[in-house]
Structure formats: structure tokens, C-alpha cells
Amino acid sequence: MRILCYLLKRLAFSIPQIFGVALVAFFLLKLIPGDPAPMMLGPLATQEAVDKLRAEMGLDQPLPQQFIAYLDRLAHGDLGRSWQTTNPVLFDLWQRLPATLELVTLSLFMAIVIGLPLGMMAGRRPNGPMARLADSYCIAAGAIPDFWLALVLIFVFYSIFKIAPPPIGRLDFAVFPPPSITGSYVIDALLEGNYHSFRAALAQLILPVSTLGIIYTVPILTMTRTTVERLNETDFIRFANAKGLSPARVSRHALRNALPSVITVIGMLFGTLVGSVVLVEVVFAWGGAGQYAVSAVLNADINASLGFILMAAIVSLIVNLVVDLVTLILDPGTQN
Amino acid sequence: MSETDPAALGGQPFANETGGEQLLATGVLKEFCGFLMNRPSYLVGYLIVAMVALSGLVAPLLPLASPVDADAGAYLVPPSWAHPMGTDSAGLDVFSRVLFAPRVDLAIALVSTCWAACFGSVAGAFVGLWEERGGIKSGAATLILRMADVIQAFPVFALALVLVAVLGQGMTSIIIAIGIVNLPLYLRLMRGEVLRIRDQSYVEAAHIAGAGDIYLLTRHIVPNAAPPLLAQMSINTGVAVLLAAGLSFIGAGVRAPTPEWGSMIAMGFQNVVTGQWWPSMFPGLALALTVFGLGRIGASILAWTNPRERSRPTRRAWKAFTEGRN
Fold it and tell me: Which of A100, A166, B104, B223 is the most exposed place for a label (fewest CB within 10 A)?
């Protein structure tokens, strides 16, 4: 019941945020120089035709009314058409989103697998060898551009050692994609029971996931470490140490209490990654929402570009909502 | 900190200390240099950034191959004496382009960070001061904060990318875009600092004595908030270099043949797959080194403001101490 109350309150808070996001998107749309009506009709259009189209598109209305009409279209899922693919933008994004989410989720998973234990160990002994390792890791990984690391990994593991598949997208040309159920090739292949395409899809994932995983470990590692360092000073950890609990036991207590802040960082990272994955998607020709956005931006496909940031903002809002709920369940004290 | 507005000072006794302050400033600078000299892991950051900036400044004076005119016939030449970092697929000398690139990359990063820091921190300072003053001031503060929330709801890179798309490609657009996505950071940082400093008794005393907002800000808040702000700016300049290079990498930023690390990495991309690593690897290394150096500068400022870190004996000092004892 309490959780339900909180959820409702939290949802009420996200409504102005979604409104703000839509306002920014609308503002950006209006910021583009030039009148879209003559551009759509071409240079030979008569003035009447232009006026008629302007009236149809609502461009002759005052701005607040245009914004309301824009909100109405958004609410119906109408993000306009992309002139590149000639499809509705929502359809295009919906098709490409699973590829991006698959990459982001697996990368975050890898970042957690490296960052959480390393951060725990570094935090438990702030002057130990693990702490120094964590220091060096953060300094190095924090400075390397992700798209360049992707190239280095391709060079080492594909060009030199030939163990990784070429960077040609989500699946080798020779392998048929599995029937689309969830949109994630790995999961779909598993559901179909097709071991061959499962392996092929997984092999394509290794390099991009490693790239993002290596770089985005840093925030998780840092947050875990500082939280655990702070917990070392608390009474309950001192007490646990004093009564002679094994270090592993104490670490488990610390981890349980560090989780809420670590999960908050993971949620924020998910949002960031949906934007930053764009670069790595381009390197690996991933064909996800990020690559779609890049080609939209480069070809002045405004509906598609705005559709992408709207989607990215909404995905990160949803993730933040989920994270807040999980934190509440883990630590009921955060409610206020 | 000059006394241009005596009314704002309210004739307070501590208004006339300019000479003492300057003395203090040089003392602090000396102490900071000593602090750096004992910590090579921070010093190296300053050296790297100085070198990168210098290479950008003096590159046109050096006897280098032209960074924009191709050497006909010398495509994809591996590193050699004539071309220390080889040439790329268009026959351009990679070494000279790497040295010229800071003129674009560092300039974009510095300008965008500076304008974002100026506007963001001023707005943040007023938001912090006005938040609990009631009336229009509170309303304005809340509005600005909500606007920052909305900007932060967008993923950084995606927003920068779309801003460049809307504003049109070019250096000015990149500077504006990177600045806008960074504004909320400074706003929040400064607001946090103001909230921390605002409730100190000396600030309250000044406020009660009739000091105006401008006086409070310049006299008490800015000097106290400067170290975290400078640290953030330094780290953020590194992030801005990465953003600018990233935008250019996908073709939404600076266009080839202008020497710029991100677009150079992009140009060499296809060659890396076939085994010619030099057109992409060297600019990437330069980029990573620059970001690393800026990060170390930021870390050094943070360490300096942390009393525990600052007074921690370095290994060298400890060795000198123990040797002196024996």
C-alpha cells in the first residue's frame, strides 16, 4: 500500500518532466530555420498550395496552439515520418530499439560484474593493492574514448588475432536471423532453440559489449568504493568486525547497505548509455536506434532525430522510475 | 575583489584588505606548487596539458608537413622518418595533423566549458541564494532548477547530437551544444556550494549587517566555492574534448580536412579493420592523453582542498624525514 502511494506520487512527479521534455523537443523543432511547407512542396509550388499545406499542418496557428496540437500527436504516438525510410518514426524506432537495449543491458551487466566486486574490495581496504588497482583502472578507463577503444579491440582481436568476428552488425551475413519475438537475437535464438545463430549473435556482441563494459565500469566502481569506504566508519560494520565476523560476512553486510546507491548509479548510467551507445553502434554497424539517429542527424531528417531523443529521454525516465522503486524496496528509509 | 560599491559594503571593517589578500594569493600559489612538486602523479597532468596546448600554439611555426595538403602518392605509408606517424588514406601526414588538432579540440572544449561554467555557476549561485527568499525570487529559482532537470532528462550525447543537427554543423554549433548539455552540472554544483556556505555564521552575519547579494557572492561564496568549481571545470574540459571528438567522429562535428582527432580516427577506421593502425591509433592516443591530463589537474585541485589528502606525507617526504633521522 505504501509502495503504491509512493508510486503514484512518483508518477505524478514525472508528468511535468515528460511535459518539459516534449516542450524542449517542440522548441528544437521550431528552432530549425526555414518554413517546412515550401520545402515539402518544392520550389515550383504556388502560394495557394503553400498556404493550404500550412493550414493543414497547423503552421498558421499561434505557437501555444501548435504546441497543444504537437502534444496531441505525441499522445497518439505520432512522431511524424522519416523522409529517409519513409516509415513513421515510431515504427522505425520500435524496430531498432531492441538491438540498442540488448547492447546497453549486456554492457551494464559486464560493468556491474567488474565494478561491484572490485569496488567492494577497494573500499574494504582503502590503502590495499586492490584500491590502487581500482585507482589506476578509473584513471585509465576514464580518459579513453569509447569509440577509439572499440577500434583498438577490433584491431587486436579481429585484424591481428582473428578471433573476433568482423564488425559488420548484429549477425554474420551467412547466418539467418531468428524469428523476431523479443527483438533480441540472442534471446530469440534461444527461444527457437537454434544453437548456431545463438552462438553467432553472441560472438558479434563480445567486442561492443566489452568496449562499453570496460569504460562504464568506472562510475559503478567509484560509487561502490566510496559507499563501502563510508560504511567502514559506521557503527554496525565496526561492531561486526569487533565481534569477529569473517571478512566475507562483513562484506555481505556492507554490500547490502551499499546497494541502494549503487543501483541509483546503474539507473543513471542506463540513461547515459542510451545516448552514448550511438558511437559504438556506428563503429560496429549495429543497426540500432543510435545508428538510426546518426544517419537522421547527418541527413537533416528532423522528425527522426527528435523521435530519437524523445525516446531516449522517456527510456531514461522509465529506468529512473524503476530504480526509485527498487531503492525503496531495498531501503524503506529513502521514501522521504 | 575591488571596493567599487561602498554602499553594498555597508562600511564594514573588513572591506579594506586588498594588499593582504594579494600576499595571501601568492602564498597559496607557492604552497600549491610545493604540493604538486611532491606529487608527480598530479604534476604529470599539468605537464601533459601544457604540452598539448603548446603543440597547438606553435604547430604552425614548426617545420612540419602541411596538415591539410596531401602528399601525392604517399597513401597509408607506415610510420617512418619522413612521416613519424605515417600518412592516412588521403596521403595526409598524421603527425602534423595530431599536433595541429588541439587548435580545434582544445579550443572547442575550453570555450564551451568556460561559457557553461560562467552562466551555470552564476545562475546556480542566485538559485541557491534565492530559493528560500520567497515571492518571485523563489519562483524564479524553482523555474531555473526545473529547466535544468529537463535538460538532464536527456542523455548527454544524444542531446548534443540533436542540438548540432538543429543548429547546423560547424564549430559554433558544437560549442553551443556542448555548453548547453553541461550547464546543469555547474548550476547544481554552485547551488550546492551556496547552500553549504549560506548557513555559515559569518555569511549570515554579513547578510544581517545589510550586505547585498552581489557582495555576499563575490566576497564569501565565490572564494569558497572556487576550488570545487575549478576541479569540475578541469574534468569537464576533458569530457568536452571527448564529446567534440565523438561528434566529429560520426561526422556531425568538425569536417575533414580540418585537423581534429575525432574525425581523424573516423578517417582511419576502415584502415584499422584491414590492419593499417596508424591513422587512427595516434590521434586516439593524443585524445586519451589530453583527457587524462585534464582529469589529473581536476583531481589535484580536489586533493588540495581535502585537508586529509593535502597533509598526507608523500613517500619522498617520508623518506627524507627518516633519512634525516638516521
Answer: B223
Q: What is the total count of domains within chain B? A: 1
Looking at the complex, report in whole angstroms how far the Cα of residue B12 sits from the nearest Cα belonging to chain A: 42
B98: CATH: 1.10.3720.10
Contact B291 A294 (CB under 8 A): no
Q: Is residue B78 part of a domain?
A: yes
ipTM over 0.90: no
Substitution target in B178, B242, B271, B278 with the highest count of A β-carbons within 10 Å is B242
Residue B137 within any structural domain of the chain = yes
Indicate whether B85 belongs to any domain.
yes
Q: Specify the pTM.
A: 0.86
SS3 string of chain B? Answer: CCCCCHHHHCCCHHHCCHHHHHHHHHHHHHHHHHHHHCCHHHHHHHHHHHHHHHHHHHHHHCCCCCCCCCCCCCCCCCCCCCCCCCECCCCCEHHHHHHHCHHHHHHHHHHHHHHHHHHHHHHHHHHHHHCCCCHHHHHHHHHHHHHHHHHHHCCHHHHHHHHHHHHCCCHHHHHHHHHHHHHHHHHHHHHHHHHHHHCCHHHHHHHHCCCCHHHHHHHHHHHHHHHHHHHHHHHHHHHHHHHHHHHHHCCCCCCCCCCCHHHHHHHHHHHHHCCCCHHHHHHHHHHHHHHHHHHHHHHHHHHHHCHHHHCCCCHHHHHHHHHHHC
Contact A309 B269 (CB under 8 A): no
Q: Report CB contact under 8 Å: B155, A274.
A: yes
Tens place of pLDDT for every residue, chain A, 336 residues?
777 888 888 888 888 888 888 888 888 877 776 666 666 677 777 788 888 877 777 777 788 888 888 888 888 888 888 877 888 999 999 999 999 999 999 999 999 999 999 999 999 888 889 999 999 999 999 899 999 999 999 999 998 888 888 888 888 777 778 877 788 888 888 888 888 888 888 899 999 999 999 999 999 999 999 999 999 889 999 999 999 999 889 999 999 989 999 999 999 999 889 988 999 999 999 989 999 999 988 887 888 888 998 999 989 888 988 888 888 888 877 655
**Are B245 and A24 inside 8 Å of each other by CB?**
no
Residue B230 falls within a domain, yes or no? yes
- What residues in A contact B280, CB-CB < 8 Å? 148, 151
Domain residue limits at B259: 62-287
Residue contact A143–B166, C-beta within 8 A: no
